[in-house]
Amino acid sequence: MNSTECFERFERLERGLIHAAVLVCLPLVASGCARGILDPVGPVAAAEKTILINSTAIMLAIIVPTMIATVAVAWWFRRGNRKADYRPDWEYSGAIELVVWAIPALTVMLLGGITWIGSHDLEPSKPLVSKIAPLKVDVVSLDWKWLFIYPDQGVATVNQLVVPAGTPVSFRLTSATVWNVFWVPQMGTMIYAMPRMTTRLNLQADRQGSFDGLSAHFSGDGFPGMQFKVQSMPADQFAMWAQGARGSGLKLDGAGYAELEKPSSYVKPMTYGSVAPNLFDAIVANKVPPNPVPLPLHNPPAPPAGA
Amino acid sequence: MFGRLTWDAIPFNQPIPLITSLVVILALGGVALWITKIKAWPYLWHEYITSTDHKRLGIMYIALALLMLVRGFADAIMMRAQQSLAIGASQGYLPPEHYNQIFSAHGTIMIFFVAMPFVIGFMNFVVPLQLGVRDVAFPTMNNVSFWLTASGALLVNLSLFLGEFARTGWLAFPPLSEKAFSPGVGVDYYLVALQISGVGTVLTAVNFVTTILKTRAPGMSYLRMPVFCWTSLASCLIMLAAFPVLTVALAELMLDRYLGFHFFTNDGGGNSMLYMNLIWVWGHPEVYILVLPAFGIYSEVAATFSGKPLFGYRSMVFATMVICIVSYCVWLHHFFTMGAGGDINAVFGIASMVIGIPTGVKIYNWLFTMYGGRVRFNVPMYYLIGFMLTFVGGGLTGVLLAIPPVDFIVHNSLFLVAHFHHVIIGGVVFALMAGYTYWFPKAFGFTLDERLGKIVFWCWFIGFHLAFMPLYVLGFWGATRRMQHISDPSWAPWLNVAFVGAAIIGLGIVLTVVQLLYSIKTRDQRRDITGDPWDGRTLEWLTLSPPPHYNFAVLPDVHGEEAYWTRKQTAIKQDQLIDEPDYQPIEMPLSTPVGVICAFFATVCGFAIIWYIWWLAILGLIGAFAVFVWYAWRDEHEHIIPVEEVRANARERRRIRMEHLHELSQST
Q: Which of B409, B449, B462, B491 to mutate to test the interface with A (most CBs of A within 10 A)?
C-alpha cells in the first residue's frame, strides 16, 4: 500500500469513527445525566458533584486542544505533505519546554487548591453545619446485609435506613466480618466499614424519598445482595416511625444478633423494637464472637425472583 | 499422603471449567505431538528453553504474555456476558463462587502474567541491543527469572483444573482472604504463584539495573542512552524497591493462613489495614513499572516514524525519573474513603496529581517530536496517536480520582474500573502492541502484515471505547464493581454496549493470531534484509535481523545521543562505512538447563504447599536448591566464537549495509 492510500484510509476511518461516536454517545449521555451521583439529594453530594464538574471542565480545557493538536500535527506533518516544513534536526526549544512544563504544572496548582479546600470542607468525620441536632446512627456491615442501630431511639433496622429529611445524620461505622463500603450515591461520600475499627461519616438528605444504598467493596459470595434503601421522610413522620417501632416486633438481643449474623443475602428490610445496650461497641471490640461460616460451595444465595 | 488433594479437587460437577480444562489439555497435547512430529524438541531445548540469550528470553516472555492474554481475555468476556445476562430476576450462567474466581483470576493474570512479562520481554529483547552490548549482566539468572515467572503462570492456570482460584479479588484483601473466610485452596494458589513469580521479577530487576548501570557500549554515557533504556531503568528501580514489599505482605498472609499467625486477622491483635498499606506500597508503583517502559516504547516510535530526534530528550529523562520517585509517595490515595483526615487526603491527593505534570510534559514532547517531522503512518504510529488521544482521557479521570472529595463518590465504582482500563489499555497495551509490531522484524527477520495490523489497532481502539465508556456512566449512576448480579434493569443497555466492546477487542486478539500466521506464511514478501526496516535511530537497527547470538561483532563506538542515526548519516554522507575493525574471538555464555529445572522444582514445591503435601514440598525445595549447588560446581560457563566466524559474518553484514547505504544516499 502506498502512503497516499494509507492516509486516505486513515482519514476515512477517523471520520467514520467520529460520526459513530457522536451518534452513539449523545443520546446515551443525555439519558444518563440525572442519576446517582449526578442527582444529589443533600449538601455533601451536591458539593462533591460541583467539584467533579468544575475539575472536569478545567481539565477538558487543556485536554481537548491537546487532542486536536495531536491529530492536526500528525496529519499536517505526514510524509506525503510536501507543503509541511521538514526540520529533521529540530529537537529542542527552551521556550516550548517552559510552556509544556508550565501548562500541566499550573493546572495541577489550580486543582491542588480545589483539592486542599475540598478535602478539608468535606472531611467525612466533620459534623455538618446545621441548626438541627444530628441524628445518630451506628452502622454495622454483616455477611451480607446492613444493620442500622439508632442509639437514641433504641431501635434498629436491617437493610433500611430511615432518616428525617433536612436533618444531619452522624454515622459511626464498623464491620462484624470483612471489609465493606457504605455508599448511598445520591447522598454523597462513601466510607469503609472495617472490623475492629470505627469510621465516622456525616451526611444529610434534604429531599424526601427513597434512595438506593449498597456496599461498594467486594465482601464475598453474597456481596451483590448487600443493598439497602434509604427512606427520607419529614422529621415528624420520622419521630412517629421511631415511636411506633420501639418496643414492638423483633428484639436485637444476644439471641437475635446471633440469628442475624448468620450469612444471608438479599435480606428483606427488618425492624428491631429493642437493641442490646452497647452492641456497636461490643462488635468493634470483637466481644460478640463472629460467626464466620462461609457459604458452602455450590449453594449460592439467590436473588429473589423479580429482585 | 496427598494432603488436601482428593478426587473432589477436579471440578466434575462444573461443566465450564471441566470442558475448558479438557480443551486446554487436548490443545497442549496436540502442540506437543506436532513438535514431536516435526522433531523440533532438540531445537526448542537448545535454542529457547535452555537459552541464556536475552533475545530468545525476550521472545519467550512475550509468547507467555500473549498466551496468558488469551486466558485473561476469556475471563473478561465471561464477566461481561454474566453482567449482561444476570439482571433482575435472572441469575446468569455463573454462580457467585465461580464468577468471583473469574474476576480475581482476570486481574491477577492480566497484571502479573500478561503486562509484566510483556514489558519485561521488551526489556530483555531491546535493552542490551540499544546499549550496544552482547547480553545482560547475568545471563543465566535471566533464564531462571523467566522460568520462575512461567512457573507462577502455570500454577495460576492449574487452579482451573485442580481446586479453585481465589475468590477475593486480585489483591486478596484480608480478612476476606484469611482462613476464616476463605478456607479453600484458592487464596493459596494466588499466594504461592505470586511468591514464585515475584522472585523472578526481583531477579530481573537486579539484572537490568546492573546491565544498564554497568554494561554499556563505549561512549554510551547515561545521557546518550535511548529513552527506552531510561524508562526500563526507572521501571526496574521501582521493581527492586516495590516487589520485596509485595513478597513481605504475601508472606505475612501465608503465615496467617498456614501457621495461625495474626498479622491481618480480626482477632489476636491482627490489623487488616497493615495489609492495605503494604499491598498498595507495591500496588501503586506497579502501575508505573508497567507504564514507564510503555512511555519508552512510544518515545522510540515517535522519533523513528517522525524521522526526527525525540523532542526534549533531557526533559523526557528528567520526567521519567520524577515519576519514578514520586510514584512512591501516592499510595494513600487508595485510602481516601477509609476515614483519613483532610490533611492526609489533601497531601496524597496533590502528590498523585503531581505525577500528571511529567506525564503531561511527555505528551507534549511526543507532539513536538511529530512537529516538523515526516510522519509515516505505520502500525506503531497508529498506536502512538491512538494512545495520545486515549491516554489524556484516562489521565483526566485519574486526576479526578486523586481529588478526595471526588474520590468519595466514585471510589470502587465502575468509574474506577473504567479509569484503570483506560490507562492500562490506552497506555500500556497500545504500547505493547506498537512495540510488538516495531521490533518483530528485528526478532524474526521479516515485518508483520500492515493491513491486518491496522485492523487489529482499530479493534483495540474502538473495542476499548465501547467496552469502557459505558462503565464511566454506570459509575456515575452508582454501580460498584465485582457484581455477580445486577438488580437494576435500566443498566442493561450500557452493559450490553460494554459486552459488544469486549467482543470487538476479542476480534482484535483473534486477528493478532491471524496476522502472525499470515505474516509467517508470506514472510518472503516482507524480508528485512538490511536489519533497519523502519529507518531507525538506535543501535538495535545497526545489526542483522535477527541479530547473531553475540549481537555485535565489535561493540559499537557511540558518538552523540542517537548512536545509530549519527553513524548512518555519516556513512551516507561519506558513502562508506567506518574502517573495518580488528575482529576478536567472542566469549558467550553457554546455555543451561538450570532455570527450567529450578522452576520445575519450584512448581512442585509450590503445588505441594498449596495442597499441604509436606514431604513433596520439602523434596521440591531441596531439588531447587540442589540445582544451584550443581550449577555452582560447573567447569565451563562460556564458549568461544572463533574469530574466523565473527569476521566472515561481519563482512557479509558490511556488504549488505553498504548496498543499503548506496540506495539511501541515491534516494536523498
A: B409
